[in-house]
Structures are given as structure tokens and as C-alpha cells.
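ugh ok fine here u go
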Amino acid sequence: MRKLAYSDWKISIKLSIMYMCFLVFPLSISLTIYAYISNQITIEKQVSLITQSLNSLETNIDNVITNVSNNSRIIIANNEIQQVIKEKSNTELVANQNRVSTALVEMVHSIPYVQSIYVFDHYGHRYGSDKHSLKSLKFTSIEEASWYERAKDEKGYYIIEINADDIFLNGEAENTISLIRIINSTVTMKPIGTLMINISEEAFKSNYDEISSGYSPNILLLNENQKVIATEGDISKEIINEVFPKGLKDEKGSRIVSVNDSRYLFSYKVLSKYGWMAIMSIPIKELEREPYQVAIVVIIIMSGIFVMVSCLIMSHTITKPIERLVHSMKQMETGKFVKVDIKTGGDEVGELKNHYNDMVDEIEKLIKRIYAEQQFKRTAELRMLQEQVKPHFLYNTIDAMRFLAYSGRNDELCEALEAFGNYYRTSLSKGSEIISLEEEINIVKDYLYLQKMRYGETIQFTFEIEACVLPYTVPKLILQPLVENAIYHGIKPKQQLGHIAIRSRLEENYILLEVEDDGVGMAGEKIATIMNNKASFGLRGTFERLNIFFERRDLYRIESEEDRGTKIMLYIPIGGSRE
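structure:
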């Protein structure tokens, strides 16, 4: 028993061995699952870290505001400040303002991140300290501020406002967080003034680096009215509205979303004490920088190289023969039946090649057989039409000679019989289907001579034939039916003198034959009927013979108008038919 070579193995066996060796599929699945699980673990870990960071941020914010609040108590309890702001008129106003401002300056510089401190009494006086420059109110009394009544309702407890210092002329462009509280008299416990401490946005930004967990987070801090308190990185209120179109209803949460074709991990938390919202986002691509992620990428690249090499081997040993076979099959679309000449074994590809080559042999034999049958059928159809034309012409000619005999015109009858003999001697042409154009013209002349004996001077005719076309060959009896049609359907119904012109000339690669009469003509509907091969036998037979002989249906054309005559044109391809 002959030992099977590798080329004789079944394709299924080859594929099984290759895939078992390369482990492409299980390796790919394993890496995909591993990458997915690792990514989920990383995201869950980061969600936990961000949550802790947001908790730390909440604590830091609370510490800042609590520290400022404690210092505000010191300010409103200061006896000198209490004494200055409770008096309506004061002869030592300037001196008192200087003392109060000095105290406030010390406070501004002792409290971190405080931008400015202002004290207002109820008489239109303002005392303050500002790290930039002291500012004047936009209106005459602090009681006109939009937040004043709300601060008053707190009865000495503070309120927080974003950019509450916009009550000043030439306010700062940066965001400030204003802690505002009413100053009550330590004696009567009645309101005697208002305290405003403006905290710089940097007070909150300084905490961001401490909670970044080694990444580059984007942080947004909103107050209870969705106004921006502070922001860090590429995050804005518009992005939050796009990411959370239905709002942030829960107290905390996380979500992975796409922003500008990049994926981000968003986490948020409500700062319950103030009703603020802290939102943090981290690009997912930063989470993928973990060391084990790099190891996964290296493994995938190595696996990809390994799989690519295996595919090249498979392409060389298995798919190349198939590709050549497919290329040969595609040539069938252009009518080329080419056998595949490749070296194969006894596997499925070899069997496919052998069956394909056998099929090509059978197709070629079938085409030759069909071609021979079509040629035989074409010849038979031509002969049948030719045989149909002869009796038709014979009948019309005998009818004309009968008319001469009946009229007693014996001399003319003898001449007609002689012309009739010449006609048939020429038309028979020793059984040939094609004759020279000169012979075809002679047939028409004999036919017209016979018809003129019958109709006399009622019919006139002229020949305009270029001498250069006479040697070319044409199918036999293609002009006579056209002349006959002109007589019987054009001139005769006119019942008066008619003229028929027979022309021929070279036109590009065709011999143009024209038969034109000045008879009754015909309407467009009748022309359409003739072009659809539903006309009288003479025309229909001629057109059909041209269709069969040249295997084309664009070799004839009819032009006609009612009462103006008809022109029929035949285009005979030259194609090497010259004698």
C-alpha cells in the first residue's frame, strides 16, 4: 500500500493539525477574556479610588469652609468692629475705618485662600481688606443685595454664595465662594451689619492634586443651583449635561461614556452638607497604562505574528491552488475556457482541478456542437425564405404575362418571356445564396422591364449606381422585393404617374442600397408595423433574411410620409465579400 504524502491528505486533516499546533482560537479567546476581566477589575478599582477621592474632597471643602466660618465668628465678635458699625454717625469715622481695616487685613493674611473680607453697616459704610484692591458697592446699601434677605433669615448663621462679590464695581474675573452672615449686636442681638468673606477658587483646586491617585483627573464642583464653583481639566457644565441628559438624581454614582470620540469614567457625589455636586472623570486610556495591560499587548502582538505566519503557510500549501482555479473560472465570464495547469496531489483540491478540466472539455465540445447546429439551422432558414421568395415572384410575373396574353400583345409577351428567362437564369446563380451587386441590379432591371410591359408609362424608374460597388457581393434577391413593394403599395394605389429610384453607394463600411418612390407613402404606425416584421411577405422576408444572414437587426431603415413617398434603405456590411 502506497504511503500517503502530505499533499494527499484531506484538507480537513490539514486544517485540524494546523489549528491544533497554532492554538489560534483558544489563545485569542483566552486573551480576550483576560483583557475584559482585567479591564473590569481596573475600572472597579478606580471607581472605588475615585469614590474615596470624592469623600476626601468633601472633607477638605468642609474643612476650608469650617475654618473660614470659625474665623468669621471671631470677626463679628470683635468689640471694635461691633462698636464702629452700630453707630449711625461717628466723628472719628476715618480713624475707626483704619482700625477696622487693619484688623481685617490681619485676618485676610492669617486665613488661607481668603481673597477679601468686607464689613457693611446699615448706614452705607463699608470696611474691608482685599488682596487686590478695595471695591465700592454698585448700590447705596448692602440691603439691596439679592441674597440679603436670605442671609437675614438665617439669624446669624452663614450662607454660601458663588461670586456674591458681584455686588461690587469692577469685580474679579475669577470665581469666588462667598461666606456671608448677618452681624448681630452682642448686646441687643439685633442686626447691625453684614460680613462677607470671599474665598478664592484656589482653596478648592489645591485639594485636587492630593486626590488624583496618580492620574490626571478632570474635576467639576457645582453648587446647589448648578452654578460652577470650581473646575479643573477638560470638563465643563456643558459636557456634564451631555453625559447626564436626565440629570444626577442619585447622591452618588459612576458611568463610562464617550465624549469627543474618547471614553471616560465619570463619578459623582453630592456634598450633603452644602447640597453641592462634585464630579470627577478619568480617561479610560489612562487606566489601560497598568503594567499588566502592557503584558497583554505584548502577548497579543506575538500571537498575531504567530497567526500571520501560520496563515501564510496555509495560503501557500492550500489556498494558492484554489486561487489559480478561481482565476481560471473567472475567465469563463469573458468566454475563455482555460484548463488549470497546476501540480496537485490526491486531495480535494486535486479532485476539484480534475473535475474542472473535464468540465472545460465538455463545454468546448458542447459549444462546437451548438455552433454547428446553429449554422445548420441558419442555412435551413435562409433556404426556406429563399424558396418562399421564388414562388411569390413567379406568381406576380406570370400574372403580368397573363395580362399581356389577354391583351393580345404577343410580341411583348415574347419579349417578356425572354426577360423572364434571363431573370431566372441570373437569379438561380447555380444555387449560390450570394451574388454580385451587378447581378442583383440586372435582376431588378429584368423585373422592372416585365412590370413596365404591364403598367406602361405609369411607372418610371432610374438607376443611380456607383461603379465601385458593383463587384461586391450581396444576398440574392434583396432589391427586387423592395421594388415590388414600391410598385404595388406605393405607385399603384396612387393611380397616376409614379417614379422609382434605385441607388447604391459606399458609405463607411457598408454598401448602401436605396429604393425610393413618390407614391402614397404611409403613416408612422404603418412604418412601426413593418419594422416589427408584420408587413407584407416581400419586405418581411427580405428583412428577416438580413437578420439571419448577418445576425444583426440594424441593417434596414424606412423613411416615409403620407402623400410624399417612401424610401427604404439597406446597409450591407462589406466584411470581405468583394469578388
